[in-house]
Amino acid sequence: GGYGEFGGRLARLLLRDNHSVIVAGRSLGKASAFCQQYGGIPQQFDIRTDLASLEKYKVDVVVDAAGPFQSYGEDALRYRVAIAALESGAHYLDLSDDGKFTKDIVSIDSLAKECHRFALSGVSSTPAISGAAVTAMLEGLESIEKIETTILPGGRAPKGYSVMWAILNQVGNPRPFWRSGKWVACIGWSEPVRKAIANHIKRDANLISTADVVLFPEHFKARTVLFRAGLSQTIMHKSVQWLGVLRQRRCIPALTRFISPLTWLANTLSFIGSDHGGMLVEVIGHSNDRKAGLKHNTWTLLAEPGEGPYVPAVAARALLRNIDKVPSGARACINELPLNEYVEAMSDIGIHAETQHSEFKYLFQAALQEQWLSLPEAMRITHAVVDRKILSGTAKITRGTSLMTELIAALFRFPKAVESTPVEVTKTRLGNKEVWWRDFGGQRFKSTLRPVVKNDILSVQTVEEQFGLMKFVLQLPVHEGVMHMNVVSGRCLGIPIPSILLPISNTTEFVKDGRMNFSVEIRAPLNLGLIVLYEGSLS
Q: N or C: which end of the chain has fewer CB within 10 A?
């Protein structure tokens, strides 16, 4: 992969560092054209047929930048390139973005040590650079609640076959993610969150599984590990998201079947959107002083237009500059070098890095401010959502009986009347908002809560709750440990709802017998009667 999208940039950096570089790939013509422009020695080489001849080149290091590593198979041949490199007396590096491939390279650890060489997988933006960034931000933290890495490539970033295949293979398909201390299935390219880097990048980023997701839970002992990516072209990002919904519902086959037209479309639209690229690594954790609350440490990388594709190559460049410091053995590349060595390897490229520290606040903690501590602990725990919290209990549901209130209840998908039913509430933090899924014995409905901000100032003791096309502002007065949720205004499709037409909410949360209890009564306006009343307890 020496003349490929990322391999070619690595070759250029190594040539800049005065290494002797053999640029190898299946096409001698492409290798020759590359070397004619940038330098290096062109060589036709196919890993399917030419590995036995690797020793004759007498190289010190073999770098596999080809991929896609997900397609290397599951048998003993999966690490055939690494094994051939080690047996020829060379070190081995790869730019794998596949978690399983990167993790399992440890299977050839004994061979690497016997050869007194190293074989490192994932020598790229992730997990090499992201892992170093997390390590650098651990100082002063006692435990980690969440690690989240986000990559936001520039609009003209290369969209090669391996990268596109790795993304499209996941879109709309379930993938395991480590959330709240256990593995759960999440849909690839779902859960969009608005991410920002400096003043140059602000866009949605969706869940995608990479090596970080597989390796970081055990390595850093974090309760949650997530990875997101966001395309510069909004239309392309949304299109992939919609295709993911269709794929999830099995309306269309796997998107890898459409890799050629989708790659063409992505490259055709490359002129749209910002060409700045960036990377964001976030660590949320408890400091050594538990009373100080949660800390939110972030490391950002901002690449100038056209420079972003060098980032995946920086890790290998830094390692080769420090080759004598790398112990022998085969492993994932996570803590091989301190972060400053990677940053130094970017010093002659238009890439800028910065670390910031702030306080993390739960949604209701931010809204209630000083009233937060007046809530009973059992209630605060139910609202202490860093990523995902699942609460369970029992509930009783009463419904209005008039035709109008039945229609309103059906519109909001409120549960039907039942004397007693199990209830499960799943709260997921996405950026500054929370998505609540309520499941009353199989009857499910959703709402989204977010802070209310006016003129860039947080509105105290209020939140906004959205049901479909309707949004309501809730006031949250707290009296003697009981929190009320009163509707004070609303909008439908952005149009203000007259106060006379607002629903009446008699909603409270309180603690009884050590459990959080809720009573949610929603009445129709104009004295039309009860819509729904659901009451019970959760923990």
A: C
Instruction: Name which of 530, 138, 109, 113 is nearest 338 in CA terms.
Output: 138
Measured between alpha carbons, how far is 133 from 121 in angstroms, rounded to an integer? 17
Q: What is the DSSP secondary structure assignment for residue 188, as one 8-state letter?
A: B
Whole-number Å distance between alpha carbons of 31 and 4: 9
Whether residue 127 has a cis bond before it, omega within 30° of 0: yes
The rounded distance, in Å, linking the Cα atoms of 442 and 424 is 9
Rounded CA-CA distance 263/233 in Å is 13
User: Measuring CA to CA, which residue among 64, 516, 532 is closest to residue 333?
Assistant: 64
Q: At what angle do helices 311-321 and 5-16 cross, to 10 degrees?
A: 40
Rounded Cα gap, residues 389 and 179, in angstroms: 9
3-state secondary structure of 384: coil
Residues β-bridged to residue 22: 41
- Residue by residue, pLDDT tens for the chain (539 residues) are 999 989 999 999 999 999 999 999 999 999 999 999 999 999 999 998 999 999 999 999 999 998 788 888 877 689 999 999 999 999 999 999 889 999 999 999 999 999 999 999 999 999 999 999 999 999 889 999 999 999 998 876 766 677 788 889 999 999 999 999 999 999 999 999 999 998 888 999 999 999 999 999 999 999 999 999 999 888 889 999 999 999 999 999 999 999 888 888 877 877 777 788 899 999 999 987 767 789 999 999 999 988 988 999 999 999 999 999 999 999 999 999 999 999 999 999 999 999 999 999 999 999 999 999 999 999 999 999 999 999 999 999 999 999 999 999 999 999 999 999 999 999 999 999 999 999 999 999 999 999 999 888 888 999 999 999 999 999 999 999 999 999 999 999 999 999 999 999 999 999 999 999 999 999 999 999 999 999 999 99
Sign of CA dihedral 55, 58, 63, 65: negative
